[in-house]
Amino acid sequence: MSLGQTNCPLILPNVHLQPLELIEKSIQKKYREFLWSPFIKALKDFNLVSENDKIAVAISGGKDSLLLAKLFQELKRASKTNFELKFIAMNPGFNQRNLDNLKFNLEHLDIPCEIYDDNIFEVAGKIAKDYPCYMCAKMRRGSLYSKATELGCNKLALGHHLDDVVETTLMSMFYMGKFETMLPKLKSDNFDIELIRPLFYVEEKNIIKFAKNNGIQAMNCGCTVAAEKTSSKRRETKELIDQLSKLNPNIKKKILSSTFNVNVEKILGFKYKKDYFSYLDDYNFTIK
């Protein structure tokens, strides 16, 4: 099946699409160590799911969000915690092939998802012609917050994984001159809802294996605006991490670990909310 012209790396299945029963079983069996266990660890470490939560799981059509939906369904079956799930997928202007592919995967994977339309691709392409990706991402996030709030949800789950966290951390240093990372959960500034990232500890390579070995043809890149302008900075960062991983297979986990181990006594300055603090605050320097 052709999924449109993009510059995104194409991920093709190794086998024919497997029956739903085998796909679900593989989460708890074959990929338990690599998908289920880190998913559960993130939930526990960051208290991402609580009693009486109503969670909107956002599905983009890609491999990450499809896996996230299946993990949450498995959690619902296995957990003693009482919570509710709503699966939502925004159609920001997909071409028909991608939209049909999304609907096919949702049906085969038995994910009861509400698809709603929002012409974000068109709007982002008009107001940010040269670099629409940032504007598109911001608008898509706002749309998902709004839809989740409309459905009465108190949490919105997104499919960002460990590689996204690591790449974002390095990109903030390389290109923005600051040290910051993706957070496993955060409160929305404009909506009464909390964003959560349950795949925080899951490596992308294992998501790819899950999709390929189960015959799942997830959406590769649904963008109709910037398919020829894919962020070179993220691609360069990903390639650098791949090179470093050949020398140190644990490099991604070490980078992630560094975000938990910031020694404020050994940095030159830091920002907390609206205030900035400098290590010079502990010294009484007089410049003459």
TrEMBL record:
All copies of domain tRNA(Ile)-lysidine/2-thiocytidine synthase N-terminal, residue ranges: 54-217
Coiled coil regions in record: none
GO molecular function, one term: transferase activity
UniProt xrefs under InterPro entries: Rossmann-like_a/b/a_fold, TilS/TtcA_N, tRNA_thiolation_TtcA_Ctu1
Origin superkingdom: Bacteria
Keyword match 4Fe-4S: no
Gene3D superfamilies (alphabetical): HUPs
Sequence positions that bind ATP: A58, I59, S60, D64, I88, G159, D164
CDD domains on file: TtcA-like (cd24138)
Protein name: tRNA 2-thiocytidine biosynthesis protein TtcA
Source organism phylogeny: Bacteria, Fusobacteriati, Fusobacteriota, Fusobacteriia, Fusobacteriales
